[in-house]
């Protein structure tokens, strides 16, 4: 049976809105991890049979198939195609699924999956161009802002503002500890970035983690979506810029090229969930992917559950019974940021390096997505 294996993964540092990456065009940002994958592995880019990128706001610099543009900017041969997909926040995780499925089916042997989102230069929702929710859809479902969905999840599972803020503070503390320990060094490529005055600066660390934050500072923040609510900017994911890419191959092709497979993708799933609560999909997605892999929750060594809002992973923890110490061990999107289309590949990249660092065997990644969906993926570290 054919296997889809992961050879290499890399990401850019995640930039804050209007931060270090603000002067760089989205297409150029998307090309950087493609170039880095080739540099790290030494393979010919001509071997790549497709570049599959996730991107949510496909307008402006992110329009016109940014995956294809990125491949051309990265000096891939014109024969290498590219496609851009939108599974909302799970777009680049879905890209990994499509890549592994193409390989397992026998259609392809070498695929790059990744994603990009430049939320500074292409603001979230800009692709809607002022269009309101379709009347026929609104007649069937209560279509609300994700922040309100996060409020309702907090209420349904009984989470207090204190619990949400404590989770958020822990995300920052874990991310800062990981940065100080150098855990992100290998997975992150350093960038030379230009400023408006023409000066150059090396950008090598994520901008999001806040060393000076505290529970007292988080408590001072006002509710962002609902009067008297619990969801604030401090316990929500950050608006960010970033890109990430993962090189997948068939095991046979990796052996032929003399490349060491580091992981294999053993299970993939995607589910639909309540489009009003919207963010609870990771719970059934986790159950389904574990069944597919014939594993239990206790078999998993590292969980990466996207921290869209603090209430999302907290509800996931409560429903799955997972070990909280294995969840987002190096922080999540509340601290590191959430460049929408890139986050799936960013989480996967961080998870595989953490498994290698700790010697863990299995990693499970899952992400909530707009309109009520979720992807889940299980990878296995290879000896």
From TrEMBL:
Thiolase C-terminal domain location: 260-381
Transmembrane segments annotated in the record for this chain: none
A Pfam family of this chain: Thiolase_C
Species annotation: Virgibacillus pantothenticus
UniProt-listed CDD domains: thiolase
Gene3D superfamilies (alphabetical): 3.40.47.10
Keywords: Acyltransferase, Transferase
GO MF assignments: acetyl-CoA C-acyltransferase activity
Keyword Acyltransferase carried by entry: yes
Domain Thiolase N-terminal: 5-251
Keyword field contains Membrane: no
Protein name, entry field: Acetyl-CoA acetyltransferase
PROSITE patterns: THIOLASE_2
Family as reported in the entry's similarity comment: Belongs to the thiolase-like superfamily. Thiolase family.
Active site location: 89, 338, 368
């Amino acid at each position: 049976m054919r296997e889809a294996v992961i050879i290499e993964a890399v990401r850019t540092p995640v930039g804050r809105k209007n931060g270090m990456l603000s002067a760089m065009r989205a297409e150029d940002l998307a090309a950087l991890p493609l170039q880095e994958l080739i540099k790290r592995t030494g393979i010919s880019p001509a071997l790549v049979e497709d570049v599959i990128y996730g991107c949510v706001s496909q307008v402006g610099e992110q329009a016109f198939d940014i995956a294809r543009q990125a491949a051309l900017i990265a000096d891939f041969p014109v024969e290498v195609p590219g496609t851009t997909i939108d599974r909302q926040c799970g777009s680049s995780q879905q890209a990994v699924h499509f890549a592994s499925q193409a390989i397992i089916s026998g259609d392809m042997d070498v695929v790059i999956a990744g994603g990009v989102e430049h939320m500074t230069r292409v603001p979230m929702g800009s692709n809607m161009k002022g269009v309101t929710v379709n009347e026929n859809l609104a007649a069937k479902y209560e279509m609300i802002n994700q922040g309100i969905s996060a409020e309702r999840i907090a209420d349904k599972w009984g989470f207090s503002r204190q619990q949400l803020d404590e989770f958020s503070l822990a995300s920052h503390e874990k991310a800062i500890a990981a940065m100080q320990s150098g855990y992100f060094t290998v997975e992150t490529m350093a960038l030379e970035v230009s400023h408006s005055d023409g000066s150059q600066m090396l950008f090598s660390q994520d901008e999001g983690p806040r060393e000076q934050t505290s529970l007292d500072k988080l408590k001072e923040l006002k509710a962002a979506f609902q009067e008297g609510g619990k969801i604030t900017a401090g316990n929500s994911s950050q608006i960010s810029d970033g890109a990430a890419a993962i090189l997948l191959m068939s095991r046979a092709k990796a052996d032929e090229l003399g490349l060491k497979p580091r992981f294999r993708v053993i299970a993939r799933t995607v589910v639909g969930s309540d489009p009003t609560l919207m963010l609870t999909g990771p719970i059934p997605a986790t159950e389904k992917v574990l069944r597919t892999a014939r594993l239990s929750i206790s078999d998993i060594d590292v969980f990466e559950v996207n921290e869209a809002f603090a209430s999302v992973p907290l509800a996931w923890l409560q429903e799955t019974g997972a070990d909280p110490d294995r969840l987002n061990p190096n922080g999540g999107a509340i601290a590191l940021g959430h460049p929408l289309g890139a986050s799936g590949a960013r989480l996967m990249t961080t998870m595989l390096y953490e498994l290698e660092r700790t010697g863990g065997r299995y990693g499970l990644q899952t992400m909530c997505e707009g309109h009520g969906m979720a992807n889940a993926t299980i990878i296995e570290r290879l000896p």
